[in-house]
């Protein structure tokens, strides 16, 4: 493991604000600001992958249900149409898919919980439908799939104000009936939108696959893959109106790299404390 040392000035201020925000919370002892990366990730951060090895959204996502691994499981690149592609693999030894499904709604109850995940870069993530988080008789997935999270976070040095609309994997073209047979027992998929100007700007895929000692998280981000103004029933497809040069400035290789670094840091960190957090605050312990 190697320590993370990339902390832009704005995030240096944020970590101190987060330390104060979480100080009186019962889970404050899980706030740990020393972050690490696995050594084997470094080669994939030093140069972009071959764009020909990127999966295509919708058309090729079912390849993630095949045994084994894709040619590139961790990497980034810009694509010819100006969009960006990020792929990331993180291992969670000692953790279960149940823990992951629980985490994906539990962290959206109050802003302080989100800071545990990435103390330097996470500001806030709050579920739009707060009532579903504590409604009786729901599964963990029913508390976040179909819900939206309003999120402020730094990706690199840039503050992003986004909304993630969580959707079933099937909405992205993934064969939900084949998930269990592929050893996949958890997911978090969705559309990412910039709150201003209300622009859907990315597609996110997280699939949880069982391993002998826990699970592995296989993530894909398609950045500026299909630009749509608005959300819900009032949308306007503007993708064909945006030239590749504009997409490259907006996303492309630059954002794909920052997204990979962010993903690897936050999920490596989450893997370090999720089993202990779940043991202390999971269902029936301290709710919600």
TrEMBL record:
Any one Gene Ontology molecular-function term assigned to this protein's record: metal ion binding
Q: Does the keyword Transferase apply?
A: no
Which keywords label this protein? Hydrolase, Metal-binding, Zinc
**Domain (DAPG hydrolase PhiG) ranges:** 59-279
Q: Which cofactor does it need?
A: Zn(2+)
Which InterPro entries does the UniProt record give?
Answer: DAPG_hydrolase
> What does the sequence similarity comment in the record state about its family?
Belongs to the DAPG/phloretin hydrolase family.
What is the protein name given in its UniProt record? DAPG hydrolase PhiG domain-containing protein
